[in-house]
Amino acid sequence: MARLRLAVLASGRGSNLQALIDAIADGQLAAAIVGVFSDKPDAPALERARHAGLPARALRPRDFTTRLAYDRALFEQVDQAGADLIVCAGYMRLISQPQVQPRVGRMLNIHPSLLPAFKGLHTHQQALDAGVDVHGASVHFLAPELDGGPVISQARVPVVSGEDAATLGRRVLAREHPLLVQTLRLFAAARVALVDGVVHLDGHAVHAPLQLDRDDRFGPATWAG
Ligand code: GRF
């Protein structure tokens, strides 16, 4: 079977990108990264990509007059790379509706909270301020609204009393990496798809996000209906 072709969008550190690079190199993920794209020319993510011998490109928003023009140029390049799936892994720019809409079902994002809780920025502080016992991360299909779109999978992280946002964030990040890899393994095996706005696994609508367990496996799915 042809390997899943991934494009990765990243603005910063790129630890999720690195997790994908490592999982592919280890034979854990039957995929190929066909391009890494960034809005920040000095993003460490681009360095990681180049180090792994992957095509890496930055387009600077300030070289474009509007968001629409920037996104059009960016996605022209993404399309040229010929990806099956576009993964936003720490891509910190809003993507305009005309670029999201035609790619719904082919674009994923990883977000550091248990969506729909704590959208936007500073999610770990938001979780601490809200006093929740359990926080975590989600992988979801991209929809035009910020951090919206059907959630595919989640990893839960218990909040330790007295910890600060940085510590909690590190513990969540450590679970993001297996969450992203295991979710992409489902795509590589053609097991997951978005059908009429609903996540399907093995051809069945999924009622609730898949939950990654401590052994980095997904627990039994809850089928809808
Ligand atoms: C992660 O926490 C991800 O969930 C969020 O941005 C961060 C990116 O981290 N969207 P990295 O660049 O992958 O290290």
Walk me through this protein's architecture.
- Helices cover 31% and strands 24% of the residues.
- It has six helices and eleven strands.
- It has helices at residues 15-25, 44-51, 67-81, 97-100, 123-130, 165-188, and strands at 4-9, 31-38, 56-58, 85-88, 107-111, 134-141, 151-158, 192-195, 198-201, 204-205, 210-212.
- The strands form two sheets. An eight-stranded mixed sheet has the order 3-2-1-4-5-6-7-11, with helices on both faces. Strands 8-9-10 form a three-stranded antiparallel sheet, with no helix packed on it.
- Strand 4, helix 4 (97-100) and strand 5 form a beta-alpha-beta unit.
- Helix 1 (15-25) runs parallel beside helix 6.
- 5-O-phosphono-beta-D-ribofuranosylamine (GRF) binds at residues 10, 12-16, 45, 89-90, 110-112, 137, 173, 176.
Q: Topology as H/E string?
A: EHEHEHEHEHEEHEEEE
The share of residues in helices is 25-40%
What fraction of the residues are assigned to beta strands by DSSP? Answer: 15-25%
Describe the biggest sheet?
8 strands, mixed
**Estimated structural class:** alpha/beta
Number of separate helices: 6
Oligomer: single chain
> Whole-number average pLDDT?
95
Q: Measure the end-to-end span.
A: 32 Å
Bound small-molecule species: 5-O-phosphono-beta-D-ribofuranosylamine
Strand order of the largest sheet: 3-2-1-4-5-6-7-11
Low-confidence stretches: none
E-strand count: 11
**So what's the overall shape?**
globular
Q: Tell me the Rg in angstroms.
A: 17 Å
